[in-house]
Amino acid sequence: MVADALVYHPAVAHYLKFVATTVGRDKLLRTLQYFARFYAWYLLRTNNAKTAIQPWETMKKQFGMVRKVLRVGKNIEHFKAAAVAADAKTMDPVLRYTAVGRQLGYAGYLTLDIATVLDATGIRKSPSAKKFQTEAFRFWAMGLACSVVAQTYTLWQLRQREARVDRKEGEGVVESKRIAIERAASRLQLTSDLCDLTVPVSALAWANIDDGFVGLAGTLSSLIGVYLQWKKTA
């Protein structure tokens, strides 16, 4: 009876739906990858033995490799999303152009990332792999910057909408609650984007950010991704 209660529990069904998605599995792997990046840095800074650090370094590299292979082909999704955003003539111009920029940034990142897969897996080494990876990070930074602008603009728009709401009326109360939900979602996305931005900024040496901070920021953005995907599969 206890086994049946566990097997047929709604949480188990929800979990199975979550891990059945590529995004769900990727976010879980990403959380472990960036936590390993942070923890390896922490162990190194606290003068632990190499034998204690090595498993975390290996986890970081291997999970990163698995995710790189899983991303192959995902660039097409973002090229399509960019085309759809470009055709959305009724969308707010700022949100429309930032959406196109964000999707093209992600598409460029994933396309160039694919070009490094054979080298990274050791199947076929390429002298251009490092250059491709650098350019991939530039595209990722561009996509994230566009997303940050879009979320900042969205929060400004919500503030303007809220100023016009009359909370004394029933419709105004409903609108106020709707704005609160939209603001929370936008703030969550903005937090995730700012955390993710530390990765290409650090990789491109645009700022001196140590691995510990990048690892923590990546872990936080990954947990946000897990949370959002969990909600989508509810």
Automatic annotation (TrEMBL):
Cellular localisation: Peroxisome membrane
Keyword Membrane attached: yes
UniProt-listed InterPro entries: PEX11
Main location: membrane
Alphabetical list of Pfam families matching this protein: PEX11 (PF05648)
Keyword Membrane appears in the UniProt entry: yes
Keywords: Membrane, Peroxisome, Peroxisome biogenesis
PANTHER family: PEROXIN 11, PEROXISOMAL BIOGENESIS FACTOR 11
Protein name, as recorded: Peroxisomal biogenesis factor 11
Organism encoding this protein: Cercophora newfieldiana
